[in-house]
Design brief:
- Chain A: Keywords: Receptor.
- The complex is a heterodimer.
- In chain A, helix 15 (535-549) runs parallel beside helix 20 (601-623).
- Chain A is mostly helical.
- Chain A is built from 23 helices and 2 strands.
- Chain A has helices at residues 119-126, 147-152, 184-195, 200-219, 237-240, 262-278, 286-300, 361-376, 394-406, 415-418, 452-469, 472-488, 494-510, 513-530, 535-549, 552-561, 564-568, 570-583, 587-595, 601-623, 631-637, 642-652, 665-672, and strands spanning 628-630, 662-664.
- A two-stranded antiparallel ribbon of chain A has the order 1-2.
- By secondary structure, chain B is mainly alpha-helical.
- The chains are: A mainly alpha, B mainly alpha.
- The interface between A and B is large, with 65 and 56 residues.
Chain lengths: 674, 322
């Protein structure tokens, strides 16, 4: 049915319409031209640019043209049903009156404007043929077109001499007017609209918007009267929204918002392109072919029309390297990032036309960062902290945003604008010892970042201060700023590990769970990258932290991942025993182990010792009920020292016997086990 | 089974577009939806394996990406709240959710399952889905409940899945059983040997035996022997809790041997020592017994001064299933 060189035959979805209007474009979300899409007027028979990939839905066949992507004319007409226009050479009045007169000289139906993206129209227009003529081997929908004939048709060819295309049976509709019926100013307007397009997405979008505009103009009879030169250009989403925090990723199928990043758009294109490279010219996917065709057309079209992909130096084939791949050149902004990886999209050599206000350094950095971000996926991000650099899923992004708003930043992702610092490496020059921590919102000045030796001195200084002053707020602040300086400079070595370990220990001492968790997730990553002397110790802390959070899932995975050697390490072995005791509610063992906690595990166990004690005392009171429990026994079992005992008693309202040596279980039970 | 890149379902132009969700809206009806989703997931799974083997990306990344792609389809289906029950797109939800669950279980991010499960639970027609999907769904929610230590609901859900699973899908039944067994045993039901044999779950035989007899020694040995299997299935921690059940049985035997409703704690201690439980002393024994009393496994009390356990004359060790 189609001249579909598709190797797998008719695509299964061939009968359905490809797209609707982009949300927010203000145009109705019709998946295909509205019924009655002009059977008259200058738009009659308008070819849907890029072809009509899936053919004309049966119920619409009466109304519009099957897309022909290559032929010059606007519709392939089979001799049968053509309710609207059955005609012949004249651009004329279909059954509904054509209220527009044929414009005076349309000899050179040369619309390179209407759809730069689709060589369909370009070629069609160039060829000076009339709408219904079956011009060449083009087919009526993109499935059928083949690349070969594409390449042959270049804009600027005036008449093609190819044979009439076969018309898929479904798509044989009449169009009334050739696009030559458009005023020059309109053509220029269209040209300008497309010139701003950056990505495939933009092209599609502009097409749809233009369709809508032209239809309404046609209906209002203002097509010829409107001053297209002054008409505001259609907004291009990719240009408008490239600021948006959008998770950058290179997936073809994924787009959360209609307004894609230019980057994402490119990705799509590039990938499809590279695939099309590798496949036969008679590629199967219509999408690929469509893009191929566009590429060809655009390359031949006037340069100013559309920044053709070909025209961009260095882009070339095999574009998979793009998107975050090896990048050359510096960011267009003046910031000198040594060793920065910048996307070459934004390099000076690129010929991308961006609105000037979008070319600020900041934005470019962000984009570059996003590319890098996307490329690395989740690398460099905090794991369990729930936010990492390179948000991938929305979930991640939300988590990241939430995390940021909650507490100090995850060191690799900065607030709000989601700058990914893994991609930017600044070398600091400052030598000041102390530095306040401030959340970064943009690239910092090298003069504010401390050098590595300075940071080392700073760490020692902070440690001493902590020992002397125990001012947690100050210490935490300083530590965070040290961490930040390290991150921004991309330093991830033993010193970084030391910094994080120190911060972990300070958090442990202070009892700051969140901070501890953040640091230990970072440490986990660092250890897996570089290993470390204290790794075992911190593994045990991690296990204890999971007990604290009752995270059985992570405990299981941790158990799964522990090697035999690790299990023998005293710290880890201790943690494992504690876990076993905890899991069986064996408070006796639990507190026995607690009293002998190695290294800093004691601090961690403190965090959940209270809840274990609570359960234990309940068990004790319940199980020994008729009798009395000696205070000493309880104290020793629950590892309660003298001073804590008082508080403990008060909390659980334990009632003593007359001689104050025993706890009266029965009476205490009333309070406790109520 | 890897899908080739050229497989029509993958190379389909439909999937080439940036906005598959709109396509879903207009084009892909739930059955097709499922196919696409399943293919995508399998493909991602295969790709993941290949990629992680070659070290190019972290394991689970492609799966996460697949999840993201599916997410857009999911949103479309969920949002379809205005249409009538017979034509709504929410019928496609369960299949999608199953795919998500599979992915999240693979990448160990169970917390992401919550919104999915909530969406399904909110459906008024959630029992009317095709049985196969229901079973898959219950299997995964059961597993999740186990991780959350919610054994009661895990039991109901898993039992349903097991009973309704088709008699011929042995592999699936076995998988369900792997998770159903620990839950049931914790509640107090022990499986028959024939069942274990039928589904080739010999690892559990010794566990069942150990629990029945109160043979802690055997239990510990089995845990060590099949540690990899249990940890791989994620049931190791739950099986550990069976130790308490085993101890209860052991203590019950001691009680029956002694025949007296006042038993020295030292007898229990003795029993534990015979079972080669490491490092146990009388205080710890008291602690264990105290826990059992608290949990209702023993009816009685401990007299600390006399170091005796005094049990109820009527029903000292009530059945676990009560």
């Amino acid at each position: 049915m189609q001249q579909n060189n598709s190797w797998y035959g008719t695509p299964p979805y061939a009968n359905y319409a490809p797209y609707a209007c982009p949300p927010g474009s203000g145009y109705p979300a019709a998946p295909f031209p509205p019924p009655g899409w002009p059977g008259y007027g200058p738009y009659a028979g308008y070819q849907f640019p890029g072809g009509w990939p899936y053919g004309v839905p049966p119920n619409m066949q009466g109304n519009f043209v099957a897309p022909s992507d290559q032929s010059s004319d606007q519709n392939k007409q089979s001799t049968d049903q053509a309710p609207l226009s059955t005609s012949d050479k004249k651009v004329q009045e279909p059954s509904n009156t054509n209220i527009y007169q044929k414009p005076p000289n349309i000899t050179n139906v040369n619309d390179n404007n209407m759809s730069n993206k689709s060589d369909t129209q370009n070629k069609r227009k160039k060829k000076n043929k009339l709408p219904w003529e079956n011009d060449d081997s083009s087919s009526t929908n993109s499935f059928s077109s083949n690349n070969d004939s594409n390449t042959n048709k270049t804009l600027g060819n005036s008449q093609s001499t190819s044979t009439p295309p076969k018309i898929p049976k479904r798509c044989h509709e009449s169009s009334i007017m050739s696009s030559g019926d458009w005023p020059e100013s309109l053509k220029r307007y269209v040209e300008r609209c497309f010139a701003r397009c950056v990505t495939e997405l933009d092209k599609d979008q502009v097409e749809i918007c233009l369709k809508g505009k032209l239809t309404s103009a046609a209906r209002n009879e203002s097509l010829w009267t409107k001053n297209w030169d002054q008409e505001p250009l259609i907004s291009i989403h990719s240009v408008a929204v490239n600021e948006k925090k959008d998770s950058m990723n290179g997936r073809i199928f994924n787009s959360k918002k209609f307004e894609g990043d230019p980057s994402r758009g490119f990705t799509v294109i590039r990938r499809s392109r590279s695939r099309s490279r590798s496949s036969s010219p008679y590629s199967s996917s219509d999408g690929r072919r469509r893009r191929d065709r566009r590429r060809h057309s655009s390359s031949e079209s006037e340069e100013k029309l559309f920044i053709g992909f070909k025209s961009r130096p260095g882009r070339g084939r095999g574009g998979q390297r793009g998107r975050g791949g090896k990048k050359k050149g510096k960011d267009r902004g003046g910031v000198d990032f040594q060793g920065a990886e910048n996307s070459y999209f934004y390099s000076k050599s690129g010929s991308m036309t961006l609105d000037p206000d979008l070319c600020t350094d900041e934005r470019l950095q962000k984009r570059a960062a996003r590319f890098a971000n996307a490329q690395r996926g989740n690398r460099g991000g905090g794991g369990g902290g729930g936010g990492g650099g390179g948000g991938k899923a929305n979930v991640n992004k939300k988590k990241r945003n939430m995390n940021l708003s909650l507490s100090i930043n995850n060191a690799f992702v900065v607030d709000g604008e989601n700058i990914d610092w893994t991609s930017i490496h600044i070398v600091g020059t400052s030598t000041t010892l102390e530095k306040q921590y401030l959340r970064l919102t943009s690239a910092p000045e090298p003069s504010t970042i401390r050098t590595l030796p300075t940071l080392k001195r700073a760490l020692n200084h902070v440690k001493n201060q902590w020992k002397v002053n125990r001012d947690y707020f100050y210490t935490c602040n300083q530590m965070k700023s040290i961490r930040q300086d390290l991150t921004v400079q991309g330093i991830r070595d033993e010193f970084t590990i030391e910094v994080y370990e120190t911060h972990c220990r300070i958090a442990l001492e202070k009892g700051d769970h969140e901070e501890f968790n953040q640091c230990q997730t970072q440490l986990k990553e660092l250890y897996s990258d570089r290993g470390g002397a204290n790794r075992m110790e911190f593994v045990s802390y991690r296990l204890l932290y999971y007990i604290f959070t009752k995270n059985t899932l992570d405990i299981t995975s941790m158990l799964a991942s522990l090697t035999a050697i690790e299990k023998k390490d005293p710290c880890i072995a201790f943690a494992l025993k504690l876990r076993a005791a905890w899991s069986l509610s064996n408070y006796y063992q639990f507190f026995k182990l607690y009293r002998k906690a190695p290294q800093m595990t004691g601090y961690l166990i403190d965090w959940f010792a209270k809840r274990e004690r609570e359960r234990a005392i309940k068990v004790l009171i319940r199980s020994y009920r008729p009798g009395n429990l000696s205070i000493d026994y309880v104290k020793s079992t629950l590892a309660l020292s003298g001073e804590d005992w008082g508080a403990f008693v008060d909390e659980y309202k334990l009632i003593f016997t007359a001689d104050n040596k025993f706890i009266d279980c029965k009476k205490s039970a009333v309070n406790l086990l109520a | 089974n890897l899908l080739s890149f050229r497989d029509p379902h993958v190379m389909s132009s439909k999937l080439m577009i940036e906005h598959p969700e709109r396509q879903v809206e207009e084009v892909i009806y739930p059955p097709l939806d499922e196919v696409v989703a399943a293919h995508l997931r399998l493909f991602a799974l295969g790709a993941d394996q290949v990629l992680s083997k070659s070290g190019k990306c972290k394991p689970g990344e492609t799966l996460e990406k697949a999840a993201e792609s599916l997410m857009s389809c999911f949103r479309v289906c969920v949002a379809d709240t205005r249409t009538g029950e017979d034509v709504t797109k929410r019928w496609g939800l369960l299949h999608l959710v199953n795919q998500f669950l599979k992915i999240y279980f693979k990448i160990n991010k169970l917390n992401l399952c919550k919104p999915m499960i909530r969406a399904i639970e909110a459906l008024p027609f959630k029992e009317k889905f095709p049985l196969s999907q229901l079973i898959t769904y219950k299997y995964y929610t059961g597993r999740k409940a186990m991780f959350d230590s919610d054994f009661k609901s895990a039991d109901t859900v898993m039992s349903f899945a097991f009973q309704h699973c088709h008699i011929r899908s042995k592999k699936n039944k076995r998988r369900i059983l792997i998770y159903l067994l620990p839950v049931k045993m914790l509640i107090g039901y022990l499986p028959k040997e024939t069942l274990l044999k039928k589904y080739n779950l010999s690892e559990f035989t010794d566990i069942v035996k150990g629990v029945k007899q109160g043979n802690i020694k055997l239990l510990n040995e089995t845990f060590e022997k099949h540690e990899a299997f249990f940890i791989g299935a994620g049931i190791y921690l739950i099986l550990e809790k069976l130790k308490i059940v085993a101890l209860r049985n052991l203590f019950k035997r001691v009680y029956m041997i002694k025949g007296n409703h006042q038993i020295d704690i030292s007898s229990f201690l003795q029993a534990m020592k015979w079972m080669e439980v490491p490092d146990v002393d009388i205080d710890e024994t008291e602690c264990i017994i105290a826990n059992m009393i608290y949990d209702g496994k023993i009816k009685g009390y401990i007299s600390h001064a006399h170091r005796k356990l005094v049990v109820s004359k009527l029903d000292a060790f009530p059945p676990l299933t009560a």
